[in-house]
């Protein structure tokens, strides 16, 4: 079997959230909320949502402004 038939793993998108980033944010949220038991999924999803919104906000802020239409 030749190596060219083995699929290569795809690299994550440069702006993709990593497992570690989400884990760290979820842990921070959990601690800020007095470490309740049984809410792991909720904190994970909240962390992921917050990080995505922050990225979108940053992208929108870093994007070049649209050119103004010429005045007549």
How would you sum up this structure, described in words?
- This protein has 72 residues and is an all-alpha fold.
- The protein has a domain at 16-60.
- The chain is 51% helix and 0% strand.
- The chain is built from two helices and no strands.
- It has helices at residues 19-32, 40-62.
- Helix 1 packs across helix 2.
- The chain is flat.
- The mean pLDDT is 85.
Low-confidence stretches: none
Radius of gyration using CA atoms only: 20 Å
User: What number is the mean pLDDT?
Assistant: 85
Topology, number of strands: 0
Task: Please write the string of helix (H) and strand (E) elements.
Answer: HH
Separate helix tally: 2
What share of residues is helical? 40-55%
* Termini Cα gap: 68 Å
Quick synopsis:
This protein has 2 helices and no strands.
Write the layout of secondary structure elements.
Blueprint: H1 19-32, H2 40-62
């Amino acid at each position: 079997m030749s190596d060219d038939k083995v699929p290569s793993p795809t690299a994550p998108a440069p702006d993709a959230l990593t497992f570690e980033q989400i884990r760290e944010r979820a842990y921070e949220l959990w601690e800020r909320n007095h470490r309740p038991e049984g809410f792991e999924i909720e904190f994970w999803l909240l962390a992921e949502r917050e990080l995505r919104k922050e990225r979108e906000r940053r992208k929108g802020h870093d994007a070049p402004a649209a050119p103004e239409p010429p005045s007549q």
